[in-house]
Amino acid sequence: MGDFQQKYNLEIEEADNYLGPDGHIKEKVMLFNGPIISANWGDTVNVTVVNRLRTNGYHSHFSTSYDVDLGPFLISDWYYGSADQMMSRISSATEPFIAGQPGSPPESDNVLFNGTNVDPHGMRGGRYAHIHVTKGKRYRIRLINASVDNSFTISIVGHKMEVVHTDFVPVRPYHTDHLFLAVGQRYDVVIDAEADISNYWLNATFSETGLCGRSRNQNPAAILHYEDAPDPDHELPQEPGERPEDARCLDSLAYEPVLDRQVSRFPVGAPNVLTADMKINRATNHNVIPVLMSSRESGNRGGGVHGLPSYRVEPSKASVSSKSLPVRIEEQEVSDTPWSYWLIQNFSPVPHPMHLHGHDFVVLGRSPALPFPPATPVGFTGRPSMFNSTVDREGLVWTNPMRRDTTVLPGLGWLVVAFEAGNPGSWIFHCHIAWHVSQGFSVQFLEEPESIGAGMNLGEVAENCNAWRQYAPQDDALKADSGI
């Protein structure tokens, strides 16, 4: 615990012919140069970023007993091509990465563990990431899926994991031998180093469905290394381990928050649904993947899920799709109903890791994963499973449901989440797959807009926006995506 101000300086720069962590050379990369940022709960972190690029962007996540805290362990897909090059093909209706499937993403070239891995393509380069442990001790580690597109099931040969946090929400200890991590999800786990002194594979396994990530490295792994075991750079683990159960791209809902919450039931009424779909506009050779807000009620008044709370929907010039609308949650609505309910209906077979800014949400329920193998020879097709207000509402979990800020919307299915309103701001709810959010897969909502100015200086925001308006015409800046 602490109450200090931690100050850090970072520089962002572009590099040519960069020797990557797996030994493969990339033509261009953008690099953060600076120290590791660390702080205690309660500290104020002040980061000064010097931008030596022409573009800019910033993204952050507020990312039981144990002996040693090993800190964060990031697992992420790695691509040799540039983001712009890949995004161009993903947004192409005529040259997709999978023939006949516009909008399909590329395979990752590798998967990195804490920024390193060997080259899976036969070249000598890179090294496996090592987690060092001593027999008899308990270790806490924060598993983070920082990928653009790839989701994984994590397992450690010969070891179990005790899950204690989901997206920074404390949960009652949950023991498992495998753990599915969707893009953007974080888990704090405790590992008992009680196995024989040796080296063990930490495996990241892809779903056989192919719906939540593919890679040219089909068996990405790191090494759990016991003290006094052979040097893992010279003697690799011998036991590959068993393939874990396929989660079919869905995260578990079994985690029980330590802080109990009772969610108020919403009444049966007219639904207000966020629909998630992939729209292919072949005329413009561009994909738009909007999340649309629609209501069956008249006028511009809508219900939450089946009537609670009432939202006011207003057009937004900032939206990529003209049909996307920001939701406005009023202060009086917050006082009347603290819970805001969201039903998301997916008309695409692709599962989407949905991430909410400004809040944790509770997962009240969702439809099952798509069957695998697919029910038809042509793959994952068919009509979506629509939320049934009579049947499905009764199966929702109201007493202490799982709470986090990222969960998976099933393919051709539905998801119901709720959060306690009361945090004034301009927030977004979006798919955490980078390709999709770039294409506009998000919805913006204004929460207690009249109170936003009490928590921040809106004049500083206006000053920055005015500076951009002056700069953009002179530099012929082109806004090629959603900007999120």
From TrEMBL:
Cofactor: Cu cation
Recorded superkingdom: Eukaryota
E.C. code: 1.10.3.2
Domain Plastocyanin-like: 72-228, 336-450
Catalyzed reactions per annotation: 4 hydroquinone + O2 = 4 benzosemiquinone + 2 H2O
InterPro entries with a match to the protein in the record: Cu-oxidase_2nd, Cu-oxidase_C, Cu-oxidase_fam, Cupredoxin
Transmembrane segments: none
Enzyme class: oxidoreductase
Keyword terms of this UniProt record: Glycoprotein, Lignin degradation
PANTHER family registered for this protein in UniProt: LACCASE, MULTI-COPPER OXIDASE
Homology family: Belongs to the multicopper oxidase family.
Name of the protein: laccase
